[in-house]
Write a structure and sequence with these properties.
Chain lengths: ~400, ~190
């Protein structure tokens, strides 16, 4: 597979590890990257807040060079990717726009090729089966929160390859690498990176909410495919911890770093030493975490057939596949979290179906009961929401 | 009793039309459900919510919309446009309002200073050079130490280049700026 490669300004400087790991990933997967010679900056948000024609002409110069070579362009930076897709979209939609752009850049440009993100490249073009065959050091035990941000999935008409509310491509990539991504609510919530320099306080509040939800849902790390999101979540994490009097300690990875690591690279060689939040220790802890998760799952499984089944036949169909016996251990755990019997019973039902969550909850409970309570609340709320959505669906 | 005119000035209405055409959407589609504002991740910091901005435009109150802090707080994350049940491109309207405000000199100093500094770096070198960008930005807002704490941090991780790199095609990039200006769009 051969692609034109547009690093953009960030991958050469502030997110140099994204560039390093993209090269390593391409090498390990056998993808041939042809760097667009003498590429220029895409203009990012500054251009499109300032002048419309400028905002599509700056990316068009790069795309025209790749088009001449007959190649699609890989743009790992989500901001560059978004501007490139917008340019292609507008040039295709209007002959007038196309001639204006061609005049501005002094080159022919028909937008015959497509720009792709790292997620689209891995999940759709390269394919998860191919990726799975290259994994030599699976990330078993890792529970990352996959953070897509805004620019990879919106606007839908322009990006249009994954769901704008609950995208799955990065989660599927992480599962292919052996990790167990958590379900959480802030996958596509904006981190406010565009406001980082000019209105820093607003940006800190937005990023704080994202880190908080990831931590509450049991994530041990965050994965992103955007240099601006990374800068916010990683570099500003310390300032956020200080401002909000809390501790997150969440390493933030580029998806390309984790692909390269799972395919055999040592973390520092893909750039983890360049992070602000320590990002190497987690890989040493993974075997122990994986073992704990396996044991928890095995424990739940071994209790199948023991203990009396508490008949809760009105519940979800998934339950009928799970023998009710493992409820005992889960009910005991749930009672440690909730004093309220009814709530504890509800929680136990969820935990029976999701042993990985039960293990995680147990772990959190040991460290911090308040936090465990929040995680449990979130679980109950999520289930209630699913249930009501299901009922609505039935009505419809 | 004389005639009472309840609609906005004709010029205001025309300006709203211009904003709609620049953003490829119609404010009259909006039935004020507020879904945009419920999901807006920066709503907490805004003076007018996205729904209220659209309402101002529906009423022809363009001056109020252009003076709203909200248009400069909007992070262009596009959540509003994605969720709007009526297909109103709210984020594009915010963008068009920013450009209109810019053309009238009604701007938030920090935001326009950042955009200017960013684009000047691109015009000069062909690429963005962070150190030059921050130096020019700080000069423009007359605050030499803004963001200063991050410089050494980034430097220590090998993430900043002290000197800019010029691309060979920087004249081509410069030409794009000149051409766009000649075609009626200035970045200043």
């Amino acid at each position: 597979m051969r692609l034109a490669y547009y690093p953009g300004c960030s991958l050469d400087a502030t997110s140099i590890e994204y560039g390093m790991s993209t090269h390593r990933m391409a090498k390990l997967l056998g993808i041939d990257l042809w760097e667009i010679p003498d590429w220029n900056c895409c203009g990012a948000s500054s251009a499109h807040q300032t002048n419309h024609l400028l905002a599509i002409s700056l990316p068009a110069r790069n795309l025209a060079i790749a088009e001449k070579e007959g190649l699609d362009t890989l743009a790992p930076c989500a901001a560059c990717y978004n501007r490139m897709r917008a340019t292609e979209y507008e040039v295709r939609a209007s002959a007038k726009t196309r001639s204006q752009v061609e005049e501005a850049i002094g080159m022919p440009f028909q937008a015959t090729q497509n720009s792709v993100s790292v997620l689209e490249l891995l999940a759709e073009r390269y394919g998860l089966d191919n990726l799975a065959s290259k994994v030599t050091k699976p990330l078993k035990g890792m529970t990352p929160a996959c953070y897509y941000g805004c620019l990879l999935v919106r606007p839908v008409a322009i990006t249009g390859f994954d769901d704008p509310e609950d995208p799955q491509s990065m989660d599927n990539i992480m599962k292919t690498l052996g990790a167990s991504p958590v379900d959480w609510a802030f996958k596509t919530e904006c981190c406010g990176a565009g406001l980082g320099v000019t209105q820093t306080d607003i940006c800190l509040e937005m990023t704080y909410r994202i880190l908080k939800n990831a931590k509450e849902m049991g994530a041990d790390s965050i994965v992103t495919a955007c240099p601006v999101c990374h800068l916010n979540l990683d570099m500003r994490q310390k300032a956020i911890e200080k401002k909000y009097q809390t501790e997150f300690n969440l390493p933030v990875y580029y998806v390309t770093e984790l692909v390269a690591i799972a395919c055999g690279d040592e973390p520092p060689t893909v750039g983890t030493n360049r992070h602000f939040v320590e990002a190497n220790a987690i890989f040493r802890q993974l075997p122990a975490k994986a073992k704990a998760m396996e044991e928890a799952a095995a424990q739940a499984a071994s209790k199948k057939g023991k203990g009396a089944a508490k008949a809760k036949a009105d519940k979800a169909p998934a339950k009928s596949e799970e023998p009710a016996a493992s409820e005992d251990a889960n009910l005991a755990l749930a009672k440690k979290v909730y004093d309220d019997e009814a709530k504890a019973a509800q929680l136990a039902e969820i935990l029976v179906q999701e042993p990985a969550r039960a293990a995680k909850l147990e772990e959190i409970l040991e460290q911090d009961k308040g936090k465990a309570l929040k995680v449990a609340d979130a679980l109950l709320a999520k289930k209630a929401k699913e249930k009501s959505a299901g009922e609505e669906g039935n009505k419809a | 009793m004389g005639k009472v005119v309840l609609s906005a000035h004709r010029e205001s209405r025309e300006l709203v039309k211009a904003i709609e055409s620049a953003s490829g959407t119609k404010t009259s589609l909006c039935y004020q459900c507020g879904k945009c504002s419920a999901g807006c991740p920066v709503g907490f910091a805004m003076d007018y919510t996205p729904r209220q901005i659209i309402r101002l435009l529906q009423l022809g109150l363009i001056e109020e919309a252009l003076q709203a802090k909200s248009i400069w707080i909007c992070a262009t994350c596009d959540t509003c446009s994605t969720r709007c049940p009526r297909g109103v491109e709210i984020a594009s309207i915010m963008d068009a309002l920013r450009r209109e405000a810019l053309s009238r000199g009604k701007v938030v100093k920090e935001v326009s200073a950042f955009n200017q500094a960013f684009l000047n770096s691109v015009k000069r070198y062909g690429r963005n050079h962070e150190v030059s960008l921050v130096l020019e930005y700080n000069t423009r807002i007359m605050n030499p130490f803004k963001n200063a704490e991050q410089g050494p941090l980034m430097m220590s991780k090998g993430k900043l280049k002290i000197l800019p790199e010029f691309i060979k095609g920087k004249n081509e990039v410069n030409r794009i700026f000149e051409k766009v200006k000649a075609m009626g769009g200035d970045h200043e």
